[in-house]
Amino acid sequence: MAKSQKTEDFEQVLEKIIFDEDELSELKNIVGEFAKGKVQPRQLKKEILLCRSRMLEDLKEFVLFYINSKKREKEPETVDFELKQKLEERNELLEILANRVNQLEAKLRKD
């Protein structure tokens, strides 16, 4: 079954957020340096957490943008309540994850 253009666009945006080529290249380099013993495990963990933190922030912003754009497309009375509730729950989960990653990042910076 063929995907709609909106679905393809949505998937492309998510792919760009998750698989940022520059960031992946940097991670690849630091993993290579770690394998050679030139980077400490703590620095590798820090870089991975920074990468994931950026990704979660971008995903959170995109989800908020997506929800708001959907709200503008539909009349308030016709918004599917169940879908809206699920998106809000996922957004809350992303916020919790982002906060946790930020806490871990702060802890790594203190060490």
Structure, described:
By secondary structure, the protein is mainly α. It has one domain (16-110). Helices cover 83% and strands 0% of the residues. It contains four helices and no strands. The longest helix is centred in the middle third of the chain and has 33 residues, at 41-73.
Give a short summary of the structure.
The protein has 111 residues and is an all-alpha fold. It contains four helices and no strands. The longest helix has 33 residues, at 41-73.
Secondary-structure element order, as H and E?
HHHH
Class by helix and strand content? mainly alpha
Helix content: over 70%
Rg (C-alpha, Å): 18 Å
In DSSP terms (H or I, runs of 4 or more residues), the helix count works out at 4
Strand content: under 5%
Largest sheet: none
**Span between termini:** 52 Å
Spans of 5+ residues with little confidence (pLDDT < 50)?
A: none
The total of beta strands comes to 0
Q: Count the domains.
A: 1
Look at the structure and give the mean pLDDT: 86
Overall shape? elongated
Element layout with pairings:
Layout: H1 5-18, H2 21-35, H3 41-73, H4 81-110
